[in-house]
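G., the chain you wanted modeled:
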Amino acid sequence: MKNCVAIRHVAFEDLGVLAPILAARGIASRYVEAGRDDVRGLIAEDPDLLVVLGGPIGAGDDALYSFLADEAAIIAKRLEAGRAVLGICLGAQLMARALGAGVGANPAGKEIGWSALSLTPAGERSPLASLTGIPVLHWHGDIIELPKGAELLASTPMTPVQAFSWGDAALALQFHPEVTADGLESWLIGHTAELAAQAIDVAALRGENRRRAPALDPAGRIMLSGWLDRAGL
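Predicted structure as tokens:
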């Protein structure tokens, strides 16, 4: 049986719709909790798929969260070996860091809410094509540079690098295709301080979540399934 390990930084940012997709393929999945579990063991374990999930910390905050350096090192080893890696939000930023690209605060501010992606020609040929014209959830304050040798797949006006691929086995996504309508209420609770700091109307965002998530759900499943196919999983 193939296996997937997901590094989770906060409890409510989980595999979401990806969990049942993996289960349907016979891929066993488990979580490693950043800051509690020793992520360095993943080098020897070498799962078939590593998913690095999102979180409210920065990819370069090693002085405060030392495990980030370990995560970046593990990602770098897997990328070098051509092993499957999926990075979402913070995970995408750690992938960029592992590939030597810059990561830092977005001078335009935080991108929180729903909007559609602008796909590059490469993105239109990729599994992201299933997301054409469909608003996706954005929830990040940092942006990344495109790593040398990576292929840009998508952007938004606020975030020039929304997605990139590194061969067929590695995909970095700044946005969140994994979210579920039910799960998003936990985001509103867990990120309440951030929402207040950004003066974001929680009731309005909740309403948008309810309108947008049902359309993202099937499109996100198609996209993630297509990428798993491409990665040989």
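Residues 143 and 223 are 22 Å apart (CA to CA).

Shout if anything looks off.
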